[in-house]
Amino acid sequence: MFQVVSWESEVNGKPTPDLEAFVNVTKEIENGEFVRIKTVHLNGKPRVLTLKQDLHYWPTWELRFDPDTAMWQRKIIKSL
Questions:
Q1: Is residue 61 part of a domain?
Q2: Most CB atoms within 10 A, among 35, 41, 77, 80?
């Protein structure tokens, strides 16, 4: 569905120019709510996808590398 030749530019009509904006918009989405995601291909062609939030099976989380410990840290952002 998501490819390295495209990027997410909007979630529910709200611009997501960076990862922080994307995370902030996704925090507002409730479990079971439908979500509109606008992607833009490298050639400039837009595409809109509709997904349904399911926090039971797919909680929202962030994965970051900690250079001090040389380990990946997973942080739950939203779940049931």
A1: yes
A2: 35
Joined together, the tokens standing for residue 65 give 């590398």
* Domain membership flag for residue 1: no
pTM, rounded to two decimals: 0.76
Say which DSSP state 18 is in: S
Q: How far apart are CA 26 and CA 13, in angstroms?
A: 12
End-to-end CA distance of the chain: 25
Domain count, the chain: 1
**Of 63, 62, 58, 51, the residue nearest 79 (C-alpha):** 58
Give the pLDDT score at 1.
54
Residue 57 vs residues 15, 24, 53, 78: alpha-carbon distances, Å: 26, 20, 9, 12
